[in-house]
Amino acid sequence: MRIVFKDKKHSSGTIKDGEIVLYISSRLSRAEQLRHIEELTRRLTPRLERARQLHLVGADPLMGLTPSPVADDAALARWAREINERHYGFAMGQVRFRKQESRWGSCSGRTRNINISHRLRGGPHELLEYVLIHEIAHLGELNHSPRFWALVERACPDWRERRRLLRQYGEYLRARESAAASETSKLVW
Ligand SMILES: [Zn+2]
After folding, report:
1. What's the rounded mean pLDDT across residues 41-61?
2. Ligand 1 centre distance from Cα of residue 147 (Å)
3. Average pLDDT, the chain
4. Which of 28, 125, 167, 189 could form a disulfide with 32 if both were Cys (CB 3.0 to 4.6 A apart)?
5. pLDDT tops 60 at residue 184
6. Cβ atoms within 10 A of the Cβ of 148, count?
7. Residue 58 CA, ligand 1 centroid: distance in Å
8. How far is the CA of 18 from the centre of ligand 1 (A)?
9. Residue 18 maps to a domain
10. Residue 112 in this model has a pLDDT that exceeds 70
11. CATH number for the domain including 86?
């Protein structure tokens, strides 16, 4: 942690280069300065944790993944048809990228359309492929029963590993977003 005293009315703090940096008002009493240091440190510590997590989670397990060349709906739909023809042969509706944050993909049993989260567009190819296969398999089984996973396994034998990486990728994206947010925002007291 770095503490800089400044001739300013307010104290503030931020995360910089992996550490907490505090700018404490030099106009305050010693006791007030201590209180500002304590409070800003308490509020900035979770951000520091997230920044560290970003480094750990972001760099290592996802390093071997390749960016996907599938970046538009036409290419995505073509790829889905190929997978479906080779492994399943289900009736399939439209396949599109959709602006959805909470789920990686969804599949409608009624329209048989498949939506893939825009957050995977241009993301890791291996994870996009897993999500696509997962949703196509739902055309056969609209649940997560052993029968469903057997369908997934047909086209994606290492689905367990991909599912694990997908969770890590989600954590990585969240950590990156909150790190970006805390880099631009400064806590002021
Ligand atoms: Zn599912």
Report:
1. 70
2. 12
3. 88
4. 28
5. no
6. 16
7. 25
8. 37
9. yes
10. yes
11. 3.30.2010.10
